[in-house]
Amino acid sequence: MPDNPVAVPRTPARPQTGAATVLKIVIAGGFGTGKTTAVGAVSEITPLSTEEYLTSASADVDSLEGLAAKRTTTVAFDFGRLTLPDAPIPLELFLFGTPGQDRFVNLWHDIVRGAVGAVVLVDTRRLAASFTPISFFEDIDLPFVVAVNEFDGAHRYDLCQVRAALDLPDRVPVVTCDARDANRVAGALLTLVHHAAKNTPASPRHSSLPTSFQDV
Amino acid sequence: MTAPGRTAEDSVFVRTYTLTRGRTAPRHRLGLETVLEAGPGRPGPGQAEECARILALCRERHRSVAELAGLLRRPVTAIKILVSDLVDADALVVPVTSPYAASSVDSGAGPSPQMLAAVTAGLRKKFPDAVSYAHAG
């Protein structure tokens, strides 16, 4: 994607009252940690699997074997939607379930740009799968919480042990979750929003300009 | 490069390329979360069948770029290219919502404290039984 398109035409936009404000939340985690399940638990639509081509530029950075030759590789993410009509202002949360691998792919940067933050789902049987998303969010300074998905039959570790194993600083909340349970997932989202609020400067450094077009 | 159509993946790639008439980048700066509504305009002749589907979906309710890509099972960039065409024809419009609340588009900063408080209130109303862990650890 070009950083500076030659001519970016003014996009017609019409003032609209009652249009919901859109906010993004990322649900990340390694393969099989329950991301799609978690998105589906709170989403009002069946999670959509959406894909994007891996660009050749990121293929160079990723240095995954064979990628350069295989140019049609795709990366996928889940999309879900959660409307909050009873919020003080009408809100829509867009939920993006991402594997969090391929952290150099532009797509992940598009997903996290301007996001509230991320819930990193962890399977204690495969902790290493969470390292990449965690270090990615640390690097880009995105607020995140770790949610240990309590799989049936998996050993229940003390959350302090999980924190130590993941080498997480004290300020990062670690909670338990059941990705199938809407209330438990919503609890993880609330923990994230609370955590993000603590990390947001109180001073209003925010532009009041409408910014429907966020990126590229 | 393998020969065109040699594998299923190749043929999907070629179909997508045809869909966008060879274009690989959208004309508008669209995000995954950019929301679109049906507008008063009509798309020009010779548009891909997918454009009609996008319009039909956006007439039902507003849709995000990510949602359209998922529903049409097409890569995000291809959808952005088609959506750009439809925006140019005024067949789709981007509603001006309340500020998304990032401090600036370029910094990618997150939502304001006021916005986060609104999210918390909205989540609590929707999920009254949800428990957050303010001091979890």
UniProtKB/TrEMBL annotation, chain B:
<protein>
    <submittedName>
        <fullName>DUF742 domain-containing protein</fullName>
    </submittedName>
</protein>
<dbReference type="Pfam" id="PF05331">
    <property type="entry name" value="DUF742"/>
</dbReference>
<dbReference type="InterPro" id="IPR007995">
    <property type="entry name" value="DUF742"/>
</dbReference>
